[in-house]
Amino acid sequence: MKNECFNIQNLDLVFGKKPKKAFEALDKGMNRDEIHQEWNQIVAVQNANFRVYQGEIFVIMGLSGSGKSSLLRCLNGMNGRSHGNIRGQILFIDPLTEQFVDISHCNNDLIMKIRKHKISMVFQQFGLMPWRTVEENVGYPLEIQKISPSEIKKQVAEKLILVGLSEWKDKFPHELSGGMQQRVGLARAFVTDADVLLMDEPFSALDPLHRKHLQEEILQLQIHLKKTIVFVTHDFSEALKIGTRIAIMEAGKILQIGVPKDLIDNPACEIVKHFTSEVQIANSIYS
Ligand SMILES: Nc1ncnc2c1ncn2[C@@H]1O[C@H](COP(=O)(O)OP(=O)(O)OP(=O)(O)O)[C@@H](O)[C@H]1O
Fold first, then answer.
1. What backbone torsions phi and psi does residue 111 show, to the nearest 5 degrees?
2. How far is Cα 233 from Cα 62, in angstroms, rounded to an integer?
3. Which tens digit of pLDDT belongs to each residue from 66-98?
4. In this predicted model, what pLDDT tens digit does every residue of 223-263 receive, in sequence order?
5. For the chain, what percentages of helix, strand and coil (3-state, to nearest 5) are there?
6. I need a labelling partner for 209 at 20 to 30 A (CA). Which of 88, 106, 147, 274 fits?
7. Per the database record, which ranges form the ABC transporter domain (predicted)?
8. Whose CA is nearest to atom 6 of ligand 1?
9. How many CB atoms are closer than 10 A to CB 259?
10. Alpha carbon nearest to ligand 1 atom 8, residue
11. Residue of 15, 232, 253 to test ligand 1 pocket, by largest number of atoms within 8 Å of CB
12. Ligand 1 atom with least separation from CA of 66
């Protein structure tokens, strides 16, 4: 039996000032567009039910606006606490203590602790501090954990080698390209001791070569460090390459969850079939 890391049950996420109206409308069977038209509420996630197991790479894949980032941000309480309203349950099971925490209802101190030590997030927009050098940005999570400066230097140097930015350690973010800034963001995520990484399109600004290199690094991280990774992408071939399991989203709903082979062999609906057939066509052209 695999150990769970997250257990998400009946999760709805609504943006807007009248979430109760939206939840009632969902219960009556109204769809996302109808609720938007009638109540001006955005249903970003509708009735999500899934588990993420320890040590897997769980990919959330879908087109723009399907609700991938919104769902990901529920997992560390960014959505449902400070933004948007949720209904349902988000349980995080600490891999070390095996204790359950209800992410949407626990107190702020606990959620801050969890974000500092347990669940680290890499954003699409890098989230770098412009006044800090590359080295200082990457070392920041260790600094706030009061790790000694010599240890920080050592760990940062290792992670900068991993993302190929050792030579750039004294530069500031504005001196780097978008892709390089994204690699700094990745190095900063890798440097933390968190067992869980939430990654929101972390490779979107990378050129194909660095993208391929870092996809392989992510796979190595999972194999050697046994990290649990929840990874958002709109690129189905990326999902197939790195995903242990993949959840496909459309208009706020999860259409299918499965291992890559399942999705290709048994697509649950036309939308999933569309993604899988595009990849198969691309493979046949390039093979
Ligand atoms: N903070 C917010 N306030 C209001 N609406 C939001 C907020 N965040 C997301 N939304 C809305 O929720 C829906 C889902 O957006 P989300 O960003 O989760 O999609 P996505 O699949 O991640 O898209 P992309 O690939 O373009 O990032 C969209 O209609 C979006 O406008």
1. -65, -35
2. 7
3. 999 999 999 999 998 888 999 999 999 987 787
4. 877 889 999 999 999 999 999 999 999 999 999 999 999 99
5. 45, 25, 30
6. 274
7. 30-276
8. 15
9. 14
10. 70
11. 15
12. 21
Q: What angle do CA 120, 169, 175 make, to 5 degrees?
A: 95
pTM (2 d.p.)? 0.89
Task: Provide the H-helix boundaries in 60-207.
Answer: 68-74, 108-117, 134-143, 149-162, 178-191
Atom of ligand 1 nearest to the CA of 69: 22
Atom of ligand 1 nearest to the CA of 73: 18
Choose which residue among 13, 69, 198 to substitute to test ligand 1 binding: the one with the highest number of ligand atoms within 8 A of its C-beta.
Answer: 69
Structure token digits, residue 154? 């050592």
Q: DSSP 3-state assignment of 272?
A: helix
User: Does domain 55-84+194-286 match CATH 3.30.2170.10?
Assistant: no
The C-alpha atoms of residue 191 and residue 258 are separated, in whole angstroms, by 30
CA distance 55 to 218: 12
Q: Which atom of ligand 1 is nearest to the CA of 249?
A: 21
ipTM of the complex: 0.97
Taking the C-alpha atoms of residue 35 and residue 21, their distance in angstroms, rounded to an integer, is 9
What is the Cα–Cα distance from 201 to 124, expressed in whole angstroms?
5
